[in-house]
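A protein record in our archive is deliberately plain, so that people and models can read it alike. The record that follows is passed on verbatim for readers who wish to inspect the format.
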Amino acid sequence: MNLSVLLTAAEQGLIYSLVALGLYLSFRILNIADLTTDGSFTLGLVACTACTAAGHPYLGFAVAVAAGALAGLVTGILQTVFRVQPILAGIITMTGLISINLMVLGGKSHQTLLREETLFTKAQELLGPQGGLAAAAAAALLCGVLLVLFLGTQLGLSLRATGDNRAMVAASSINPAFTTVVGLAIANGIIALSGALLAQQQGYGDTTLGTGMVVIGLASLVIGEVVTARRGGIAGAVAAAVLGSVLYRIITAFALTSNLGASNLKLVSAVIVAAAISYPAVIAKIKWMKKRREASKHA
């Protein structure tokens, strides 16, 4: 794998790291398996694509975040007001977004941006060939820092408490329904921003690009946690999510530059995800077997 492929993988890893950050907020902080991710990622992507094609590339980011937050808001309301199970609420929103995403692109499934100015083309003009990598790194750094700062506020602490013990939070005069809705809205807003960045980085928007985002994001989280051993508190967890996403993309790029071929991308991704998610359980099993052998020796 040459340097150019490595840098491209790192750039995409930084863009996709926002998915991992959003899932960290919903999955780790709120303890909710939110399947809205695939839909909100694509919604942010097509919203930014439409704005960029209309000549408003930077407004597209704000529109994407707002659209993603609205999707998370719908999922949160389904969960808290209508008592729909979290997984089912995410599936309902994600299913509805399939049609909405097509509407945003005017009924098309694909829209090119090759002749449009984007954040990445502007960054390359100013900083050279690696301007895109710098833009992706800046976006990941900004989102990571803002997320850490937010989780240290009173509202952020309420979100963390909601995920730890909803009954205790309710007894402490904090409305867990409100914190859940806010948390899901912010998480999906971050995820939608990732989709917006990807659209401008690749130079096109496609309604199929969000497939499997929730699995890839969770794999990135697990990879980052394994590498960092969950050290450093909230800041460490956020950094681990970004690092895990970059490592995931580098591993995928390495596999594709081997003799596996691009047609096996989904299989490679599935193997990486399965290995990342099962790794903690495998290590725990190995440690348990070692302790059992040592105990049998002393018996």
About this structure: Residues 265-298 form the longest helix (34 residues).
